[in-house]
């Protein structure tokens, strides 16, 4: 698992496992995600430990950044949302209803333009709760290149960490 290639905001990162260290959170250092492994952690448990730490790291990044990134899109669309919740659905990038955005943590692996697409798309559902012509027109007014972003996300999506 050490040396594994990961994505964060479309940028390629490498995982570096640091065995027999004092426990501390996963940290980004110059293109490396460094994960100290606790002393005495059996080699057969390192993969599960690393995966749990990675999921936590991605979720924290999503929780910290996505609400602020959604705000300008809400303003452009003329809508407001109450809160943004980071979720873990198997097959959706997000959903939005009753002012609550639910966004899949996996999206922070994608380039920022695709993150913005998901945020704007879900916020547009506060105007139109369907995918009809009016919905796409509303999204197109604030994001004229949404079709290209949507296509790129469809291509990249299966490669993101599950």
Automatic annotation (TrEMBL):
Pfam families: YgjP-like. This is YgjP-like metallopeptidase domain-containing protein. It comes from Sorangium cellulosum. Residues 2-154 form the YgjP-like metallopeptidase domain.
């Amino acid at each position: 698992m050490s040396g594994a290639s990961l994505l964060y905001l479309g940028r390629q990162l490498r995982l570096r496992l640091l065995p027999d260290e004092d426990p501390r959170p996963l940290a980004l250092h110059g293109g490396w995600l460094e994960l100290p492994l606790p002393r005495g952690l059996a080699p057969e448990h390192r993969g599960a430990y690393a995966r749990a730490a990675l999921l936590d790291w991605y979720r924290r990044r999503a929780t910290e950044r996505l609400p602020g990134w959604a705000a300008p899109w809400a303003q452009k669309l003329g809508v407001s949302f109450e809160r943004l919740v980071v979720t873990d659905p198997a097959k959706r990038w997000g959903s939005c209803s009753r002012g609550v955005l639910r966004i899949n943590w996996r999206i922070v692996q994608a380039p920022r333009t695709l993150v913005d697409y998901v945020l704007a798309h879900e916020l547009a559902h506060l105007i139109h709760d369907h995918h009809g012509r009016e919905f796409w027109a509303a999204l197109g007014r604030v994001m004229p290149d949404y079709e290209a972003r949507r296509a790129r996300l469809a291509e990249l999506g299966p490669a993101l960490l599950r």
